[in-house]
Amino acid sequence: MDGAKKSLAASQETKSTAEGDLEVTKKDLAEDTATLSDLHHECLTTSQDFEAEVNSRAEELKAIGTAKEALKNSGAASFLQLSTNDEPSKLVVHFVRDLARKQNDQSLAQLASRMASAVRLSSSTGEDPFAKIKTLISDMLTKLEEDGAADANHKAYCDKEMAETKQKKIEKSAEVEHLSTKIDQKSSASAKLKEEVSTLQQELAAMAKSQSEMVSLRAEQKSVYEFNKEETEQGLEGVKLALKVLRDYYAKAEKSSQGGASSGVIGMLEVIESDFSKSLAQMTAVEDAAAAEYHMQTQQNEVTKKMKDQDVKYKTKEFTGLDKSVNEHKTDRDGSQEELDATMEALKRLEDMCIAKPESYADRAARRESEISGLKEALSILESESAFVQRSVAHLRGGVRTHIA
Asked: For the segment 210-220, what is each residue's pLDDT rounded down to a tens digit?
């Protein structure tokens, strides 16, 4: 029976634990599915934004490279060496500054400012301003390329860290919930066992009290029996002795006048002897029955007490083990909760750092298209003015040669 009880309790605990694990697993699966969907959508959106940004940056780099190449091949340096007229440079600076103002682009504004400074410096020193402008554009190209590489590295870092941190959040949340379920289940089982132990202890106390009262009653019954038995036996012995004396006496006397009297006395004493014998027999039978019942009840109480003591011992050991497990699970849960809190804090920092609120791709593409068009227009003006001045210089040279001839 003890083995069956232990097996039943273990099976019930295993069933309860399995049911709790099943519920937690179902809930975790639903949360993981939802998180996977959100993560997939977020990754797709981020990837599209990054691709658009890379394409936009590539177009910007291409435009600036075109501008650089145009400056390199436009003959502007020859123009400046042949003429002191710096209007093309000023027009380019004006266009870049106007473009920066329209697009609200600080990089272009700074570029225009540096270009203007280069033009002013070249006017006073007679140096070629386009060499300085080429350097400025090269520096800006380098900066944009470095920014692009940094953006790519930053995105890769954010994608990796965000994915790992979100996965860790899912795992730690599931772990905390699983441990909480374990704690609730084992705390409930421990409380139930403690209640059962308390009931058993109350039953044992009541049984001990009943046994004590039964012992006292049995001692009192036995004392009364022994006292009555002794008196009855003494009375019976006295009657028997009286009968013996009378019978001996009347046997010796042969007087017929006394025959009737002797029969009456002896008959009365024989009736008394019979009553004493019956009373003694009944008294003994009652005592034997009471003693047998006391013995049987005592044995039954001993067996019941032993079973209940075993139950108390087993259940106490079981809920002690459960309490120990609960304390261990609480310690584990506290540690997991701390890790979860740290993960949540790290995730928040990553979201603040990685999930920015940039302008839309359409706005960014339109802005870059305007910048590229403006820069191309500035280059076109610069090239047109340079060609015009070169033609004028050629005409002047031809006139000089004619005049000399």
From this structure: 999 999 999 99
